[in-house]
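Lab notebook: predicted structure, single chain.

Context: the supervisor wants predicted structures on file for every construct in the current expression panel, including those that have not yet been purified. This is the next one on the list. No modifications to the sequence; it matches the entry in the shared construct table.
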Amino acid sequence: MGGMELEKGMKLIDENGRRIDGRRPDELRPIKIEAGVLKRAEGSAYVEWGNNKVLAAVYGPREAHPRHNQKAERAIVQCRYNMAPFSVTDRKRPGPDRRSNEISKVIAEAFSNVIFLEQFPRTAVGVYIEVLQADAGTRCAGITAGSVALADAGIPMKDLVVAVASGKVGGVVCLDLNKEEDNFGEADVPMGVAPRTGDLVLLQMDGHLTAAEFDQAMKYSMNAANQIYELQRDALRRRYAVSLEDLKVEMQREAPPPAEEEPKYDVYYDAQPGVQE
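Prediction complete. Output recorded below exactly as produced.
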């Protein structure tokens, strides 16, 4: 973790236990999630997580290509994680690199553990994650966005996947590291979990933690995962609430106009002249 120099006099953890951006050790960065942001994709989502901005799109299930990748008994998950050249301060070289290939692989494996792949033999589910702006934790933001996009596409899953990272900064275990903390901290532990079952579908580690520090990091991440899970569910609720309203409006437009009722007339009988009633 590094390659940069910390500005002189800058402390990652101050004397009050506050981090460089003012957060407490167990505090998440602000998170915003929107579902159904792309019309051309079968499912999509957009996540703002601190200064990260990530877009995810899902296509499929479709026939897997090339055909030698097909599995006779189940579908496969194909993932492409990509950082845009303008997503970082120093322009990134376009196209896949070793890091993006590795992250694409672990994300595909994470989703393979929750999708009911056996329902779609010989097909592929494509998950495309584009990092538009990066500020540490992009794989976690990408998994969180991709999971919402899969649900938006109607892909049957055991549960949504939530990803979040904890680590160690200035000797203190902290949740959800930002760029400076990731660059100059001592450890980073990204984790992906299916909150309903508690199954871990991703666990990586960069750096060193003691057993007690690792337990604390996992406790922070698990608690945060439950918070993010509710944000994912809320994004999907808003998405389908809008869809239902649009459907109602469309049905009202297509409904035939109500039949006009025949006018009703009041009938009056005039007595004949000279005839007593």
